[in-house]
Structures are given as structure tokens and as C-alpha cells.
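Receptor-like serine/threonine-protein kinase structure dump, as promised
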Amino acid sequence: MDFQLPYCFFFLLLLLLPFSSNGQAHSNISLGSSLTAANNNLSWTSPSGEFAFGFQQVGDAGYLLAIWFKKIPERTIVWSANRNDLVLGGSTVQLTEDGELVLNDQSGSQIWIRPQSGGSGAAYAAMLDTGNFVVASQAGANLWQSFDDPTDTLLPTQNLNSGAQLIAPYLEKNYSDGRFKFILQADGNLILYTTHYPLNTSNFAYWSTQSSIGSGYQVIFNQSGHMYLVATNGTVLNPVFSDSVSMQDLYLRATLDYDGVLRQYVYPKTASSSRSRAMAWTTLSNSIPSNICLRIGGQVGSGACGFNSYCRLGDDQRPSCKCPPGYTFFDPNDERKGCKKDFISQDCDHPSQEIDSFEIEEMPNTNWPFNDYEMFASEGEDWCRQACLSDCYCDVAIYNTAGQCWMKRVPLSNGVIGPSVAGKALIKVRKGNSTAGSSAKKCDRSNLITTGSVLLGSSIFLIVLSLLGIYVFFSRWNRRQQKMIPQQRLMPDMNMQNFTYSELERATGGFKEELGRGAFGTVYKGVLANEDKPLIAVKKLDKMAGEGDKEFNTEVKVIGRTNHKNLVQLVGFCNEGQHRLLVYEYMSNGSLANFLFGDSRPNWYRRMQIAFDIARGLLYLHEECSSQIIHCDIKPQNILLDKSFSARISDFGLAKLLKTDQTKTTTAIRGTKGYVALEWFKNLPVTTKVDTYSFGILLLELVCCRKNFEINALQEHQVVLADWACDCLKEGKLGLLVEEDEEATEDMKTVERFVMVAIWCIQEDPSLRPGMKKVVQMLEGAVQVSIPPDLSSFISTI
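C-alpha cells r here:
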């Protein structure tokens, strides 16, 4: 029995040691404890010593309050508190007596605090062996944990709940918010987005689980290295990572890297645990997406690489950003900032004189999608080259085997190169030893100045020149004073002129050249008598709602305050006697109706861009301008195209200026047959949803490149486009809508999304129609589009 005495003594010592409910008493951090940012590298470590919480110095920029792998020489950071607001030496983090974890800078100003609602009931904090830092109560309940507030990394047993997200770092060693995010949306979809950098708002979805609406509940990352999306009942919906990992031998993390790729990394815990592995972080076989260069193709944003650059996937499966010929990086230390021209652009005043100063550099299998402003079909490559050289706007032309020549201009975005990329990029660059016309002009001026200086050596010439200068000065001053008179009629706080009727009569040549007629009146082409002779469109309104000047001026001010790239800008007006006229900027490419329903079909990508333009313009009118404006007559004739073929909404805000009995139709409603929402017929309140309805019809016309109502359709069921589109969606035959459109046929996912959005927009019940903000998000792919509740619930108005 003598052997029992030492064991009893040993167990007695164990009983005397203090324990907490989680069995990690020795790692607990007591209230009042603090750390200071300094070079001593003091930290709060986990029981095994594998993770540490404290300050990490980031070059010379400052200190990051972070969690990192303690036993790895690289000190890989997995979480940070102040990634966008580094602090200097002397800053502190303290677990206060009130149970709050507070980061103060060197001056004592508060930078960050958790829990944000206060630490009432907190008894201690702890750095756990899972890599989770917690603030806990005496009973061991977590009041706050770093696992619920992730930055760019997930660790095994750390789950991603609905609404939570990872934000990529800006660069590998720059931990501030970058250009990509990984989020589990409230609708259950797990998505990778580009962001509207420097904001974190979603831009373009380049990877998605595409789960059913409302089904995705949580992303599980277990100790075996499996990551998957689950439903509320625990059903696995979508696997993300499926590789099995031994946590006994390897460290594991999943990180959204600065290049927008979600990767799973492992690191051997000891050199002998895996002799085949080097002592470094190694990427597992799967990463999402597999090719970031090809996946990002948004219409806005810089994408995987910056503007004017292109993305190439390297042998290590990581993207590399390069500049095309004639371009260099803005910042050699940050390739993702994009590239700039190394030469002076072509002189648009004399483009033909500079053709010989430029040449074409070829880049096979290269493209910058969505930057085109013109497309020519059935032309040869030589013709495409010459067309770009002759066009001062053209910076790059893409020529493909179908004989299409796509003209593009800077800034170029989402560039990509690779064997699977169709088309050849023709890059226009200035020849090495040539000079720009503008530079030559400067040299010519310099020579003139030198010559003039010699001539001015004569005192007699100086006297004559002085007298001549005085004469010219007073002559110009007199003319300038005369020109200043109309400027006195500018609207207060607005760059909008109050014209006289006679001025507009002269500007239009007696209202000679008619551009079009509509519900609000007749539009005429004109030119102002300013020095730059700007072209204008003058609209003569037929019938007015108010007889007084005050009412008209008030409504014009509302329209004049609008300012958006997808609205036609109002530059002036006339309110003189019985004359009511509005003066707009001139749109050189006419109406969408002529463009869409003409002899040749506009390309699919141009139609997509026009749909985005119109949706964003309506969103501005409905939600973003100072006074909400309901258009009431959205149709192709009221969408104009500028010189770049960008869509601009016209005639917005004019509904209030019309008399109640003025209408395009024979009914007492406003709007145009075929585009009118059903509430007009039911005397229901008119809201912004009437514009949503009209946009839905217009969107179908853009997708199918035909009018909503065609009496001469090939088959009777195709007469009403909305009915036919609905039938095709229900029967799974959307290809019939675009069967003669090769570009659209190759992009059926977008066609399906656009058609579903359109059918949501034309629901009979206005409450079922989405607002334009959601419409924009659905079109961009930022929000999942569900199947409309009842595809037969709407009644077409024809």
C-alpha cells in the first residue's frame, strides 16, 4: 500500500489548482489586463501556444491588433481588429473592469471596442486553441468572440452565419479592406463578389452556390477541412471544399486572398510530420474560382486586375497582371492599380493627319469585354485595323473569327488573356519616334514666340502693337459684355438658362428641322450662338397643367436639379407668354426605338448595357434625386442614345406639366399602349411601380430585339411578346426568344435572368413588382432572381 501515498498526494495537488468551466484557467486573461504596441512582442497566447493575440507591426505603417499562428515563423495573421486604421507604438488594448475589450491609440482615443453593447457580466477573456478569442462570463458563456467577427480567414470549427462575410486584404502584406468579398446572403446564396472599391458594397458576382432562395443557413468549416453550405435542418446543400486534412499533423485555414480567390492552406506542424511538404503554407488542390481571370467579367469595376491591364493565370494557378504594349503600371509596387499610356493620345481635332504616327500591336487570345462603343460586322481584319487607326476614340479593337470588329476605348477593364479567349486584340500605339500633333503645335508656337521676340526689338513696332492691342481689347470687351447679357438669366443655384422665344426661334432656324413628336410635344434640332456652337434639342410643349409662370418655373427647377449620366440633361427653358419650351442637350444617336427596331440587330452586349443604363436612370429618379420623379411613359422612343451609345432617359418629370386630359392614347390614362401598368385601368394609386412595369416590357424588347406587339408575328402566340416570353419560361424554351441571335444564345444564363426580372416587373399586383433598386441588383447578379409566383397572373395591355 506504500505506492498509494505519492498518487494521493499528486491528486491532492490537482484538486488544489484553480479550474474554470472550460478547463483553460491558466490562459484566462483577467479584467484590467492590457497590452501595449511595442517591439517586445508581448501577447496573450492559447494554452498550446499555437495562437496569439496582440500587436503585430506592419512595416513602417503602424501596428495591427491581431490573432496569428504563434509557432509558425511567418506569423500568419488570421484575424485583425483595426485593419483599416493602424495604430502607432504606445497604443494599448485593454480588457476593462467593465468587461470591454478596448483599443486606444497612443493619444488615448478609442479606435475599436467589443462587445459593442457593453461587457456587462464579463469575468475574463481567453485565447483558445481553436484560434478564437473570447470575452466570457463567469459561467463560461461567450459574450463576444472573434469567430463571429471575421476579416479574411476562416479556421476549422469557425462557421459563417447568414449575413456574415470575409473581406479580402488589399495586398498580401497590406491588410486593409480590398476589392473582393465572400458572403452568405440572407437569401441563402453563398457568393463571391467584386466590390465598388474603396467601398465594400457588392459589384459583380463571379462565383455562387446558387442555392434555393431562403435555404442556405450556415457555412460549416469542420476539423477535417470540409467546408459546406447547410440548410436549417442540417442538410448539406453545396460543398465548398471537400479535401480531408489531418489536424493532428497540419495547421489549416481558408482565406479570401487579395486576388479574389478563396483558397484552403495547410502547414506542417513539425518537419517530420510530412516529409513531402516544405515548411511553408501550401495551397490544397481546390480553390474558388479555379480561374479568377476568366470568371470576372463585370461591366463596371477593375476586376481581377486594374484598368488598362490584363489578367493571365500563371503556372502556379495565381493571376498575374500585365500591361499591354504602350502602357506601364501606375504603381510598380501595386500592379492591381492598373496601367497608363506611355504616349500622347491621338489628336481628335486632326485624326487623319496623325494616322501615320500610330501603329497596331497584336495580342492574340485577348479581350477587354464591355468596353466597346461600336461594333462592325462582316468586315476583314485589315479593315478593322484601319478603322481603329482612323478613329481618335479607338484605343483597342477586338477582331474575332466571326468577322466582328469591336471598337474600345480606355479605361479598359476586366482584361483577360488565355487559350480559351476568342478574338485578337489590336492595340493602337504611337510609333516610337513620332510626336503628337499637340506637341508639334507647341513647338510651332515656341518658334513663333522666338520670331516675335526678335521683331519686337523695334520700339516703333512696340508702339504700333500697343495701339493695336488696345483696339482689340476694347472690341473684345464690348462683344463680351453683349454676350454676358443672356447669362444674367441663369436660374439661381443652377446652370440652366432662361431663353427668350426669339432666341430659340433663331437657334432652330424657325423650328425647321423636326427630330420627333411625342406625347408632350414636338422636338426640333438647334444650335446655340455660343463660341463652341453646341447642338441642342428644343421641345415645344403643347398643353400645360398650370397657366401661371410660377408653377411652370417650379416644375422646371425640379427637372433641372437632376444630374445623372443616364438622364438627358436639361440646359434651359422658355416661359414667355403662351410659349413653354424646354432645351436639352442633343443626343447624336437618336432614340432607342430606331436603334433597336431598325434594319440590323444591335449586338447582345450593347443591349445588355442599355438595360443597365435605363434601370440605373430610373433608380435615380425614384430614390436618389432630391424630389422623387415618376416618369409615367417609359418606352423606346423616350430613351435616347448619346455619342457613345449610352442610354439616357428623356421626358422625365414632364407628366406634371401636362393637362389631365392629355394622353397618347384615347383613354384617360397617361403613357403609351403596351407599356402602361394595369393600375391605370383600375383607378389605383400611381406609384413608381408604373415605371417598373414599363421597364419590364422594355427589357423584354431589349432581350428579344422586337416590339412587344407585332401583329405580323410568325405565329399567333408570338403576337404579344410578354405572353410569349412567359410561355417560353414556363416551358423551358427560352432559346426560342433569341434563336436567331448567336451572341445571346451563347449567354443563356443572362437571357434567363433578364427574362425573369422582366416578368417580375410586369406582375399585375404592383406590390409584387420589385423596386428599381432591386431590379438593378437582380440584373447585375448581386441578388438571386426567383421564379415569379404566378407566371399567368399578369394581363398584357395592348
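The radius of gyration is 33 Å.
lmk if u need the other ones
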